[in-house]
Amino acid sequence: MRAKDMSGLRRTTRVALLAASIAVFALASVASAALGDVARGSGVELELPVGWEKVTPLRAATVGDPHTVLVIGTDGVRAVASDCLVSSYRVPANGAVVVVIGWRDSVGTGFLPLSGMKLRRGTFSCFSGRGAVAQVTRRGRDYQLNVMVGDRASAETAEAALEAARSFALAPRAS
After folding, report:
1. Is residue 60 part of a domain?
2. Same structural domain for residues 10 and 87?
3. Do residues 89 and 79 touch, judged by C-beta distance below 8 A?
4. What pLDDT digit, counting tens, does each position of 24-40 carry?
5. DSSP code of 141?
6. Are residues 32 and 46 in the same domain?
7. Are residues 104 and 137 in the same domain?
8. Residue 164 in contact with residue 53, Cβ under 8 Å?
9. 3-state SS, one letter per residue, for 73-134
């Protein structure tokens, strides 16, 4: 090969390597940002699936127990008036929501583990779509994690909702 051809080949190789490096860095940055996004509210947190956001909870006219502590959902989820605390959210047919409700103290109800959450119809009396529920106690307080998935939501959206609920943790205390 001639020297001029070798020089052009080296330059092309360098440009290709630089472009590949930039692409890998960009993908890694997007992936790590998506995995690290967390929604916090009232001392608890959930990991946000890609494209999900924190939803403003519906505030009841009276303050009592239980109460909504954190809500996350896909695009289009929003609070709506309802007699049901858990299902006070409009869930798009292709979307999903995770609603965390809590009590001020432990109420001593049954334990439903996060690992056992499975979507099924009829989970919630005020929501006709698929739902799942779990209950946990942390630092002497009970929390109920509720997942509602629209009828046309993809398997990926349904699994993202369950994984978000399973990511439930107490938020780090401020120092």
Report:
1. yes
2. no
3. yes
4. 333 333 333 344 599 99
5. E
6. no
7. yes
8. no
9. ECCCCEECCCCCCCCCEECCCCCEEEEEEECCCCCCCCCECHHHCCCEECCECCECCEEEEE
Length of the chain: 175
What CA–CA distance (Å, rounded) separates 32 from 16? 24
| pLDDT tens figures, 96-150 | 999 999 998 887 766 788 888 999 999 998 999 999 999 999 888 999 999 999 9
Q: Tokens 């993908």 — which residue?
A: 27
Tell me, yes or no, whether 175 lies in a domain.
no
H-helix or E-strand containing 149?
Answer: strand 141-149
Q: How many domains does the chain have?
A: 2
How far is 70 from 81, CA to CA, in rounded Å? 17
**Which helix (H) or strand (E) covers residue 39, if one does?**
strand 38-41
Question: Which CATH number goes with the domain that contains 164?
Answer: 3.40.1000
Token pair, residue 114, equals 């996060």
CB 49 within 8 A of CB 160: yes
* Range of the structural domain that residue 27 is part of: 1-36
The pLDDT assigned to 142 comes to: 92
Identify which of 48, 56, 46, 102 has the alpha carbon closest to the alpha carbon of residue 77.
Answer: 56
Backbone angles phi, psi at 97, to 5 degrees: -145, 150
Reported pTM:
0.77
* φ, ψ dihedrals at 45, nearest 5°: -145, 155
